[in-house]
Design goal:
This protein is about 60% helix and about 5% strand. The chain folds into three domains: about 150 residues; about 80 residues, Transcription Factor, Ets-1 (DNA polymerase, domain 1, Orthogonal Bundle); about 250 residues, Transcription Factor, Ets-1 (DNA polymerase, domain 1). The strands form two sheets. A two-stranded antiparallel ribbon has the order 1-4. The chain is mostly helical. One of its GO terms (cellular component) is presynaptic active zone. It comes from Gadus morhua (Atlantic cod).
Length: about 550
């Protein structure tokens, strides 16, 4: 055998088997050896026997080598078994970690559900707090109205007491009995000096105010009237200038600025309107609404950010119907959308004869008609959004100027405009489609059709949330015509009092039949391009 037996166990076995066969063969040869054979046979036997002995020794060596190899393989097998046990231990540990991770994930899911429940609870609590705030505001408004009525009744009582004292004086004079000059009497100077401070502009705290023309009022009466009218800061200069009421009636706006120190243009306008009403004796329902009511009205139409400017300018109900574009710019109202909001809100007041409670703040009707929606306040529109499953976007309408009058009366105000104000992303098409459907149901089929026709008209300019209003700059050719114009010709009222059909970009806009008397009295030719410029400001 010539092959390596150490590397071939099968070969080793074959070699051992071969050697055993040779030994058997030799034994077989030796067995029948004839002792009487010649000497050469014995020598041959001895040679074979020695060769077999060598093979035996070789086999012993090979068996030793095989034993060493078997032991080495046993050591390797033991190492593999230990590695297998280690891997099994790691696998068990990994399974335990995976199970722990699953438990942690389950715990996080439960915590997430708990947090969502808490968020829902907080949203409901916030809505409840907002409703309570609205109720508190209404209660405060009612208290202020009652206080105003109480002051009015108090003034009436003072007037009656004054008349009573005059009748008593006349009665005593007819009887020949003179009253004691040093005795205090109700209705005298000391008695009437105090209540004048709480007199409202239209209350007429004395009989002379009611019966005497304003031109015949004394200096003190004029100064007292200015205090009552919210212009008390100009009383000192007025007392030094005026002789009677006729001084104010015959003065010009330049005289008001020079002699009385009235720098604020809206204060001059307020004084002019009041003097005009006193001289013509025209009683307007809007004159009953003071500047405090106007600030609450701004809350109702969704423009509370302008309350300080309106309060500082002492804008009252009478001034509202004579506001111009430049007046709003003076009040820092530059947004085109806010101009339209104020326009529509003023028209709602006109339609309701300046009823101070015409705007609705609470949801009362289940299926409101457009004539009812037009009287919705900003808060009521937010409640409608919550009712149509858009509660998360409702707070975005704060300070937007969106109220029922704007939604119904402005033909350019559409569902797309509302989506922009609510900050609904354009990619949420299903949500915008839902809003468009709810908006169409709210304004009615006829108004929806007319809004669509107006949007498709030639030269239509979409209503954006960033458009600004600026007064148009006068060219050199226009300065020559300024002296020829009268003040009434240059008046650019936000909501004109006269009614009629107004052109809208070449298309005559008519209110639909359900709101025929509540149409916006607006000039639709690109918001009077001949007097103002509309500039889109991005960002």
């Amino acid at each position: 055998m010539q092959q390596c037996t150490a590397c071939d166990p099968i070969g080793q076995k074959a070699l051992v088997q071969d050697q055993c066969d040779q030994v058997g063969f030799c034994s077989a040869l030796v067995g029948p050896v004839n002792l009487s054979a010649p000497g050469n046979s014995t020598a041959s036997y001895q040679e074979r026997l020695s060769r077999l002995e060598g093979d035996k020794e070789s086999l012993i060596l090979q068996v030793g080598l095989l034993t060493d190899q078997v032991e080495a393989q046993g050591v390797k097998i033991s190492g593999l078994l230990s590695s297998l046990e280690e891997y099994q231990h790691k696998l068990k540990y990994t399974e335990e970690m995976l199970q722990q991770e699953l438990l942690n994930r389950t715990s996080l899911e439960s915590q997430k559900l708990n947090l969502m429940g808490e968020v829902s609870y907080l949203k409901l609590k916030l809505a409840d707090m907002e409703q309570n705030h609205v109720h508190g505001t209404e209660r405060q408004h009612k208290a202020e109205v009652l206080l105003k009525e109480l002051r009015f009744l108090k003034d009436r009582v003072e007037v009656l007491e004054d008349q009573k004292s005059q009748y008593e004086k006349k009665l005593k004079a007819t009887k020949g009995v003179d009253p004691d000059a040093g005795q205090f009497q109700r209705g005298g100077l000391r008695a009437t000096a105090g209540p004048r401070l709480t007199r409202t502009p239209e209350s007429h705290s004395s009989s002379r105010d009611m019966n005497t023309p304003f031109g015949q009022w004394s200096k003190e009466q004029v100064c007292g009237w200015l205090e009552d009218y919210g212009l008390a800061q100009y009383v000192n200069l007025t007392r030094q200038w005026v002789d009677n009421g006729q001084t104010l009636l015959s003065a010009s706006p330049q005289d008001y600025e020079k002699e009385m120190g009235i720098k604020h243009p809206l204060h001059r306008k307020k004084l002019q309107l009041a003097l005009k009403a006193l001289s013509t004796k025209v009683v307007e329902k809007s004159s009953e609404l003071d500047h405090i009511w106007v600030t609450r009205w701004l809350d109702d139409i969704g423009l509370p950010q302008y309350k300080d400017q309106f309060h500082e300018a002492r804008v009252d109900g009478r001034m509202i119907q004579y506001l111009t574009v430049n007046d709003l710019l003076t009040l820092k109202v530059t947004s085109q959308l806010h101009h339209l909001s104020i326009k529509c809100a003023i028209h709602v007041l006109h339609a309701n004869k300046f009823n101070p409670h015409c705007l609705r703040r609470r949801p009362a009707e289940e299926s409101p008609s457009p004539s009812e929606v037009v009287q919705w306040s900003n808060h009521r529109v937010m409640e409608w959004l919550r009712a149509v499953d858009l509660a998360e976007y409702a707070p975005n309408l704060r300070g937007s100027g969106v109220h029922g009058g704007l939604v119904i009366l402005e033909p350019r105000f559409s569902a797309e405009t509302l989506a922009l104000l609510l900050n609904i992303p354009p990619q949420k098409t299903l949500l915008r489609r839902h809003l468009a459907s709810a908006f169409s149901s709210l304004v009615g089929a006829q108004a929806t059709q007319e809004k669509r026709e107006y949007a498709n008209a030639t030269g239509h300019v979409p209503l954006t949330t960033t458009a600004k209003v600026r007064p148009k700059k006068l060219g050199f050719t226009q300065f020559s015509h300024l002296r020829k114009k009268k003040p009434d010709d240059t008046a650019d009222y936000i909501c004109p009092i006269d009614s009629g059909v107004v052109p809208a970009n070449g298309v005559f806009y008519r209110p639909y039949s359900g709101m025929r008397h509540l149409s916006p009295l607006l000039d639709r030719q690109s918001e009077r391009q001949e007097k103002i410029d509309v500039v889109d400001v991005v960002g």
